[in-house]
């Protein structure tokens, strides 16, 4: 079986692993107060073009999301998110477990628009009833989104502007950030994120690390006492240097972006193969996740050789499924997949 | 100004108040461990036709909802509710503040259907991803709903059946329960609720008490240690007998239902006046809340003499607003309102 | 049986109740946005000598404590309290249920000293480990304390000074505040509290109201969005005017303090009777709660006629128990109790 | 500088690391649903002598503690712990952040006695006031404790007996479990723990793993839906197999215990050196943590070459400090330390 079901099937990029091996017997201070974490934070600050940001390293994405949101909000405040947002659907109510409502807005492509955010804010701000409703205070977006789409600089700027007007925090979940920043058509970069967001994270787990997310805090309110929050929520790794060592390796040169670029390239080959055979897609994605809509009859055949993720049923006899590539995706495996697709020939949805 | 904006503008029904005055200087045990609470609980058990239920008295509805839900759920479990449900929209995230997600289902008339509940349950039960999602465990419904509609015995039985099949608790918010049970077309009663629900409450605040809700617990799991939960959530009234005295008065005869019947009758007069002049309604309600759709030009005139609640804009120039009656509504005031409506003559939406 | 077991055995002072009856059929806005609440708040501001404070009315003490603390703290922050503090012992973990640790300091007389607070703060502020520990952020004291003792102006000033130096909120639980302010030896008053504390409440439930506490917020951080917090925690009374009506009556003249003075006077008679017969006390109290240490043999006889509260076993055969008086305590009942004490004659602890 | 300040200064044991390297490019399912986790769980079940236990792998100790406790308790329930317990002092209120009070009992040696637990339970069970107090429901102990002491089989059996009589869960924090089970005088083993506890964990972070704790659940109530809890609390590692690979290596032979034995042996050398020079100890420890009481004048000299942890000031001029050894402790480094101690000669506390 060849796995295209997710982007965390393998371990770490060999260079990252090598660095862990090389530093294994060094003695360092615990809890992220070591020189590797300092170095990695310094590299990230430099790539973001700002020295006045705080960088923290956490183990995983759900942990990062819940820690940021718990740190940022007072008890009566909530989070605006697309209904497809990871915090809304796939984190077992982690945000609510910290006491906060997720105000989920309908979204066809996984993105929020500035206007939606403004309308949601205003719907909660009427004089008469506002204290009977949750107060929106943080906007959660993902880039790329859970369905692989990305924000343009113009879109993100508009969102950022609304957030600043309405005194909302803007937090960007970058579990797959590298894939967005290396996608065809992308016009955002780290300095832009550091300028437009109050907080965002650069995902390592899904791009070449064994595990780990680099959280960038730009807003002073969220920065304050943040290490207390990491500890309380169980996210403070005793051997914190493991995170520092990995991120230093990912960002000392361009390794992080090289890996993301490779994955996107592999994904485009898969996309192309489906497109050429007439398949529709759930959304148009230029990143490492592709969501072709496939007749059940073909899925039956595909699953004999390939693992993918079921996403959503779109008609009686067809479903959107997810094919994921990663830094580790073997072009040979992609070749087998595309060959298989071509072998089935042009898709016929009419009988579905 | 005549207030039709809510059903808690006045104090208590005179008979209830009189009883509070009469017993004022008696010395009783605190925290609801007095003879008045026992008596009132006994009356309610008897009206429900079951001795094996627990009855607790709390001060308000939000408090009751959050205490029941916190008592019933484990941290990873959530509540299925209509998107219009009070807990979803007008309790400032009280349920989330207790750690639980509200899984809000779209509802045009404020009600949930058995099939919607089943579908929601199943969407969260897939083998592959279920632990990444909240586990639905309690169904929250209101009767009457927030828009005045009511459940039939058949509908509630179907919901109860799904809940038992799927091991979901069924909890009914009865902030205005009397109005439902006395509505034209209603075929439910207290014994039916005590049989079909795991918990429900009989609202006093909105039907004749100074304040107070009588919570009925039918399910042993929720019953266990419930007084701890009341205390922890700040709902244990020191002079608990105030609740017992009031509910004993409401239920020793038919006072509770007489008051609700009066309010419904007043509401039907208002409904009739609007209907005769061609007004549409947001929903068809047979209880004390009416939601006519009214052109802005007419609202401008109405608001000079009457208070109502704004509900929702339905077109450029017309809104649904809420007129509420209560046990205290004066037929004379209703007369003034209906006269005014007739004075405006047949409604013309065309220019809205 | 004559009840001396608590100070909330009866209903409300007749003047308070009369006012509720008199205003019963008036129509007012809900949720505390009525003229009675405004009036009562105005009276309290005036008695505190400050216009820049916020006054909110809540139903009970646990509710008030948890709402203030939840509003004031971020998730990693905790509360310093005497180990005897009500929040630490008798509120079923309500503060922890809001996510906050109570850092309980040993206290023999129910009071905290400025030095204890400072030492606790410093023990949590070491550079190396602080983020592994809760951050102390709010100091909770009660006046009178749970064992009837009171703070002097000098003591409270010293506490306030430490709190301001260390950026700690100072919150005073005044469930029985009137009894403290009317006690022999007291040199504090409402303006002093409003100057020295960040928040405090004036208890009504235990001094003449049916229920209700008037919360005074002096600190802008805690003031912000406080009504959201009241609603979320289930403390927003629909017919909020009931609280306004009562507090307006308590504070329009000196009724609140007259009642407290009466209770203290009755308590001093009881104290005197025990003292004259050689009884020891758990602490020296000048307020309405007295804690004589009584041999079990005498308790057996007392309990045939009087209700008191068991407090703590102090030796094999003797316990401290609590006798409470209130605004409603009948001098005749006190006469019966003191007569009984004198009848037993001088106490002999030697055989205990 | 030679570090004796903690037992997590280095990375992983070389054999463990080698296994991670060896398996790095394999494709496996995520979230712990892979064959390595199955294998490791199987090995642990086998070492515990029970097939009916559940084994989960988490990243760190605080995370494990909070997840177990959140899974086990209802909102009104609390945890009995020694006041020195890690959850009470060094987890930034993580348990309270999940809503639960820690009922901390004084302990001189870090241990709880069966009698203390029973007394605490009974103090919270009085008919009159129990619902005003937290309900004790889980007993938290550490083995070895935070000060290196260990439980005997007799002590643990007595605790287990009280817990079962009183319907309390018994949870053992084994962050350093190996060191306890390999200590001189220990008579406990994994099968005994699996029989006497409801849950416990086998710490990897401090004994040879890069990170990771193996949680053993013996009680069906806690087992239920536990993966939901791991996910919600942010503890579900995407590449879960990293934990499985490590624990399989630690437990396929005796590596785990060999490493712990080495650390204990090194600690005994340090202990012996201090003892021979007349030093007192905070407690008598036979595990990898030693707490000698050292005059400040000597600490000044020691700190030029060695890192240790400050623990507690015991007099004007002397403090208890912690020396930690681990699987990675070099006998040469221990030699340097003991030589240094001998060089200072017999300790003189008199001038302290």
Automatic annotation (TrEMBL), chains A, B, C, D:
The source's domain of life comes to Bacteria
One annotated GO biological process:
amino acid metabolic process
Q: In what residue span(s) does the Aromatic amino acid beta-eliminating lyase/threonine aldolase domain sit?
A: 17-290
Cofactor entry: pyridoxal 5'-phosphate
What does the record give under GO molecular function? Answer: lyase activity
Q: What UniProt keywords are attached to this protein's entry?
A: Lyase, Pyridoxal phosphate
Enzyme Commission number(s)? 4.1.2.48
The enzyme's main class, written as a single word, is lyase
Name the InterPro entries for this protein: ArAA_b-elim_lyase/Thr_aldolase (IPR001597), PyrdxlP-dep_Trfase (IPR015424), PyrdxlP-dep_Trfase_major (IPR015421), PyrdxlP-dep_Trfase_small (IPR015422)
PANTHER family (alphabetical): L-THREONINE ALDOLASE-RELATED, LOW SPECIFICITY L-THREONINE ALDOLASE
Into which family does the record put it?
A: Belongs to the threonine aldolase family.
Protein name listed in UniProt: Low specificity L-threonine aldolase
For this protein's source organism, the top of the classification is: Bacteria, Bacillati, Bacillota, Clostridia, Eubacteriales
């Amino acid at each position: 079986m060849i796995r295209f079901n997710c982007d965390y099937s393998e371990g770490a990029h060999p260079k990252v692993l090598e660095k862990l091996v090389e530093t294994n017997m060094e003695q360092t201070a615990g809890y992220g107060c070591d020189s590797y974490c300092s170095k990695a934070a310094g590299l990230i600050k430099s790539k973001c073009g700002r020295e006045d940001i705080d960088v923290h390293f956490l183990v995983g994405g759900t942990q990062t999301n819940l820690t940021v949101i718990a740190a940022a909000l007072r008890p009566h405040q909530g989070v605006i998110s697309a209904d497809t947002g990871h915090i809304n659907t796939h984190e077992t109510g982690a945000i609510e477990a910290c006491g906060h409502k997720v105000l989920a807005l309908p979204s066809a492509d996984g993105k929020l628009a500035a206007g939606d955010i403004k309308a949601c804010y205003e719907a909660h701000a009427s004089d008469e009833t506002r204290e009977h409703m949750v107060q929106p205070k943080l906007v959660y977006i993902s880039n790329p989104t859970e369905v692989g789409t990305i924000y343009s600089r113009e879109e993100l700027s508009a969102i950022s502007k609304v957030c600043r007007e309405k005194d909302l925090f803007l937090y960007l979940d970058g579990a797959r950030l590298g894939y967005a920043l290396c996608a065809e058509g992308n016009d955002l970069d780290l300095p832009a994120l550091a300028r437009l967001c109050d907080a965002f994270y650069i995902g390592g787990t899904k791009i070449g690390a064994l595990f780990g997310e680099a959280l960038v805090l730009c807003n002073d309110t969220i920065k304050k006492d943040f290490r207390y929050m990491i500890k309380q929520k169980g996210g403070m790794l005793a051997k914190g240097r493991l995170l520092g060592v990995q991120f230093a390796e990912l960002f000392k040169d361009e390794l992080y972006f090289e890996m993301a670029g490779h994955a996107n390239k592999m994904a485009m080959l898969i996309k192309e193969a489906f497109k050429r055979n007439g398949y529709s897609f759930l959304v148009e994605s230029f990143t490492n996740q592709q969501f072709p809509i496939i007749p059940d009859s073909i899925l039956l055949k595909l699953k004999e050789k390939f693992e993918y993720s079921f996403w959503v049923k779109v008609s009686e006899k067809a479903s959107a499924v997810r094919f994921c590539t990663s830094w580790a995706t073997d072009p040979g495996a992609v070749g087998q997949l595309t060959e298989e697709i071509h072998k089935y020939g042009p898709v016929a949805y009419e009988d579905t």
